[in-house]
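**Sequence with structure:**
===
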Amino acid sequence: MNSPKTWHEFDQYTTDKLISYDPVLENVLQTNAEEGLPSINVSPVEGKMLHMIASLSKAKNILEVGTLGGYSTIWLARALPDDGQLVSLEYSAKHAEVAKRNLKKARLDDKVEILIGAAIETFPQLPEKGFHDFDFVFIDADKQNNSRYVEEALKLSHPGTCIVVDNVVRNGAVLDSDHEDESVQGIRQMFDYLSDHPSIESTAIQTVGSKGYDGFLIAIVK
């Protein structure tokens, strides 16, 4: 029973049982595929998990690093109160344009601002644009820079801010200290950075499902 086929089938089972059919989100996935975007967005059950964590955090200001086509962006933006705001950092101008169209269809374009460019370069612009004191941060971008993204996010956080980082297991490859993949090494550097960090409390969970064997890091700023 413990196989990728079972993982995928259980993901579908829980999606059918626990997540109502959503034509907006289905259209987002279809649009992303038609536009040739890579199918690396979170799954529906993962999207709902992010939505619920953001809701539990009572997040009013959300930061997302890695927009892609806006699928996770919509899940998170729907957790915001009427006066809430989400800013998302996206490297690809094409991905950002697709995401903007998807957000407009979801009627969330008034709550979301997308900044285009390398996140390492756009992070310093956030305070200048009035974005700071984030309540929730979701990091799902180039993994080799994860530790830098967490470090920059901490500067824009406050005690109680929740930070979630996706894809931190990489099918177990993170255990290999000599792995040649820059993404794997970036994740290992992030774990080293967070180990006994005085200002943040962290844990990690492994996941299996339609996206394979991976996991999330979840942290709370002290």
About this structure: The first helix runs from residue 4 to 18. The CA atoms of residues 14 and 45 lie 7 Å apart. Strands lie at 61-65, 85-90, 112-116, 136-139, 162-166, 200-209, 212-221. The mean pLDDT is 97.
